[in-house]
Design a protein that fits this description.
By secondary structure, the protein is an alpha+beta fold. Helices cover 18% and strands 28% of the residues. A 3-stranded antiparallel beta sheet has the order 1-2-3, with no helix packed on it. It is globular.
């Protein structure tokens, strides 16, 4: 998965307050605490990955996620 090797709690850049929810709860790959609310931050459904944050602005963890995404 795209988050393999990224430690829990690793910071990511979130610049907006959108909070979509996947229909299938099993598709949740990561959550983020945003002002006391748990927001789905990443999904994995079959061959579909989605992020609700900016990996390109999330330092080393974001770079690792983008590299894994391209390799998937």
């Amino acid at each position: 998965p795209i988050l393999e090797g990224v430690p829990p709690g690793e910071p990511a850049s979130l610049w907006h307050s959108s909070s979509p929810e996947p229909r299938d709860p099993a598709a949740r790959l990561a959550n983020v605490d945003y002002g006391g609310h748990s927001i789905c931050a990443a999904v994995d459904q079959g061959n579909l990955y989605g992020c609700q944050f900016h990996p390109e602005r999330s330092a080393h963890a974001g770079l690792a996620m983008l590299q894994r995404f391209l390799a998937a």
